[in-house]
Design goal:
six-stranded mixed sheet; single chain; about 325 residues; alpha/beta; two-stranded parallel sheet
Length: about 325
């Protein structure tokens, strides 16, 4: 009888353990699924900033194959920017040669300030610079980590330093690109703002990891000057400025043509003439928030959407119809 009771107790205990095990397994699976969902949400459209306030804007660009100097030359417009980047690369090469021959070389900073309006190619050139720095032996990996204030600043005391350090760690041996960096120092300088904590943490890491970290900060010219002037540490580390001019109407037209070629589209001569006229008008009446290349990309996307709506009413569409944008399509993009 005692044996039977003991057996029953053992079965009950084992059953309880198994139930607890499966409950715990179910909880862990649920947590893992939720974490995976969050990762997927962050990866979705990672190259674009969303309108959500609570977001961590962090994009890691791995090093691409190919010749970065050729890619720089192939960019539309930006002639002054190309000259500045080539000049920087030439200076580094000569200093490296002087060092090989036992000559003195001046101490230089590889950190950069990119100034200019939105959509003028700052992020694209920063990626190219990262690869050029790798080619020159300045950086081992040559990747680029893109972020902004939301990727560096946390909501509570003590968390910003940890968050900033994590971003810096991911950028080691590459470039950390901080877009709209002036947002770390709000206009008016609120004393309790955690942006200053992010700056202090960043400056310390730039010193501690000076041989394996390059930082490029970017934004509007006047705001970036205010940002640099806000801290002596920033002034001493960022002394190389590259200004990105707005695109001309012709350059914006060429960018639109580039989107056509890359996506196997063409447009009629009437559509082409209209596009030139509209871009000239838009540039003449632009404000400081004009999106430049981003604006053209949006116009291209709207034009091909108008084409799709138009062709949806047509049966047996030909290859030519599927590739050609008409005056109606391009006009619709500006409405």
């Amino acid at each position: 009888m005692n044996v039977s009771n003991n057996t029953t107790k053992i079965i009950i205990v084992i059953g309880g353990v198994l139930i607890a095990f499966f409950i715990a397994l179910g909880v862990l699976t649920y947590v893992a699924d939720k974490a995976d969902d969050k990762i997927k949400e962050k990866k979705t459209d990672g190259t674009e900033q969303t309108d959500s306030v609570e977001r961590d804007s962090v994009v890691i660009n791995e090093t691409l194959e190919g010749d970065p100097y050729q890619e720089l030359d192939e960019l539309i417009g930006l002639e002054s920017v190309k000259e500045e980047v080539r000049s920087l690369a030439n200076f580094v090469k000569v200093q490296q040669e002087r060092k090989k021959q036992g000559m003195k070389t001046p101490k230089m900073s590889y950190h950069l300030v990119f100034t200019g309006s939105p959509g003028t190619g700052k992020t694209t050139v920063a990626r190219i610079v990262a690869r050029i720095y790798k080619d020159l032996g300045i950086l081992k990996r040559g990747h680029m980590v893109e972020t902004d204030r939301s990727g560096l600043v946390a909501e509570y005391v003590g968390q910003t330093a940890q968050k900033t350090n994590a971003i810096v760690d991911s950028a080691l041996n590459g470039v950390l690109f901080i877009d709209e960096a002036y947002a770390l120092v709000p206009d008016g300088g609120r004393g309790s703002d955690y942006g200053q904590e992010a700056i202090s943490t960043l400056l310390k890491r730039m010193e501690d990891d000076r041989d394996k970290l390059v930082v490029i900060v970017a934004g509007y010219s006047s705001e970036m000057q205010r940002f640099i002037d806000s801290n002596p540490g920033l002034q001493s580390r960022f002394n190389k400025y590259i200004n990105f001019p707005d695109y001309t109407p012709r350059e914006l037209y060429d960018i639109f043509q580039m989107y056509l070629r890359k996506n196997q589209y063409t447009m009629t001569s009437e559509a082409s003439s209209y596009l030139r006229q509209r871009l000239s008008y838009v540039v003449e009446h632009k404000d400081r928030n004009f999106g430049n290349a981003r604006y053209v990309r949006n116009m291209f996307e709207k034009a091909i959407q108008r084409q799709a709506n138009r062709l949806s009413q047509t049966s047996n569409t030909s290859r030519e119809q599927l590739s050609e944008l008409t005056l109606e399509d391009v006009k619709g993009a500006f409405e």
